[in-house]
Amino acid sequence: MMNKFISLLPKAELHLHIEGTFEPELMFKIAQRNNIKLEFNSVEELKKAYQFDCLQDFLNIYYAGASVLIHEQDCYDLTWAYLEECAKQNVRHTEIMFDPQTHTERGVKFETVVKGISNACQDAKDKLNVSSLLIMSYLRHLSEESAFKTLEESLPYKHLIKAVGLDSSEMGNPPSKFQRVFEASIKEGYIPVAHAGEEGPAEYIWEALNLLKIKRIDHGNNCFEDDLIEEIKKRDIALTVCPLSNTALRVVDDLKNHPVLKMMEKGLKVTINSDDPAYFGGQVNENYIQLQKALNLTKDQLIEFAENSFKYSLLGQKEKDDFLNELNSFIKTYH
Ligand code: HPA
Ligand code: ZN
Known about the structure:
Blueprint: H1 2-8, E1 11-17, H2 24-33, H3 43-48, H4 55-66, H5 72-88, E2 91-98, H6 100-104, H7 110-127, E3 131-139, H8 144-154, E4 163-167, H9 179-187, E5 191-192, E6 194-196, H10 202-210, E7 216-219, H11 226-234, E8 238-241, H12 243-248, H13 260-265, E9 269-272, H14 277-280, H15 284-295, H16 299-311, H17 317-334
Parallel strand pairs: 1-2, 2-3, 3-4, 4-5, 6-7, 7-8, 8-9
Helix pairs in contact: 1-15, 5-7, 8-9, 16-17
Hypoxanthine binds at residues 17, 20, 55, 62, 167-168, 195, 198, 245, 275-276.
């Protein structure tokens, strides 16, 4: 009953790394056609390696997987496979993060990556009626200089990219390291968002708000300081929570102890997302389903997540209203 409701519920996904949607079967197929040997001999062997003690454990495997992407068609196929899943799950809109440096550091051109991804997005709009936009994420374990280079490389493709983000190894790489490059990115018209408070402390969330001027907090699990919560509410900023990511990376020990209810009690705006679905055991609907089960969430709480996902998307008001109307008609017929 609840599962059917969740799967039919129109929703947006606001925290998703395209490199994290790389299913092992597709990874092996692309590796093979590019004549690249993965360090794993089979899909089963690769899947066995998906046991993580922390964010860094996961990142090592995630970057290794992404290294088989060479051609525009590879990036297209990866993105298209994810967008087909969106259509099946009633994800009506998705804000896709991509990590240019994961590819440019290996000698793949920025253009190759952005064209492959955005062509798939355009086709998804036309053929699947799934809406999307792109968030270019800087890798925080790399230098400020490398982020500036990436910003420079993005400029000819500015019309294809809506926002900038910040991801990868959080501890020891505070938002302050990227203050200048975010300032320059904002000047170019990009909307700033950032991962903050996943493994890092509340202080990193403060920095992301005050120094990077972010419009959305990715994760934000460590936001529980009264004055920080007040500040987030004052700015009317949402958190993109990723339940199965949190348990897979041991940010949360058990979904039953997930801070999402506490966040909502405090009046924070929460959305539910998959982060890296191929690695963490489920797409966005599976995140809703398992969280609902663990915390015995009501339909109204699930509707609130879906409503927030459209409201706090980076779409214009007209598009937001259209999706919110669609959500409302669904609720009227289904509730
Ligand atoms: N955190 C930081 N970096 C990432 C993540 C994440 O959850 N997923 C992909 N890159
Ligand atoms: Zn993430």
